[in-house]
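Exercise 7.
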Amino acid sequence: MKEGNWLLRFSGNVYSQFGEDGIIEKIVSMLPVSGWCVEFGAWDGKHLSNTHLLLSQKGWSGVLIESDPKKYQDLRATYVGNERVICLNRKVSFDGDDLLDNILESTPAPRELDLLSIDIDGNDYHVWKSVIRYRPKIVVIEFNNTIPNCIEFIRRPRVRRLREGAVGGITVPLGAGGFLARWALEWRPHIADVFARLREINGGYHIRILNDIVIAMLETPVR
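Solution. The predicted structure, written as tokens, is:
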């Protein structure tokens, strides 16, 4: 196993989907934490959740945000009677009143969060970039594992979806921004074969527009 992937040894699911529970547990064991997490796109708070293990079994506190009214009711039912968990029926965006920074101001969540989990299938990167006042130690965010590291790809904000899901997600350097630790987890969309064909046909690096999505192919592959 490559040295940069050593955390994968700790992958394990209790409620998560791709081994996040085990990876998060290992990272948390290496950091000073206060036990605070935030998740938006929280769904019912349990299904494929990256925070439910922490909130239900590890004594953590958290803010869980879900925009769908029906799923929000399920979310409230999951945590009924748990005073450490705040459930909000809000949409999180990258501008205006729906900035995550603005939403969290009305909660007791500390500025130095331990964990932020983002799963909104589309504008994940742009919302993440807009988080300024809150500084999570760990960020869980989807990216497209099928796009090679030599391609820097960020979908435009608010573009029309080609299909349900993260439509290419993001593939960007994760070291910038000053966060102490970040862990990105994968999602595999339909259009991976399109990128493969572009690379095969062009044989070089260019900037192209594909269905209103910018594909920036770097001149030098990232190693």
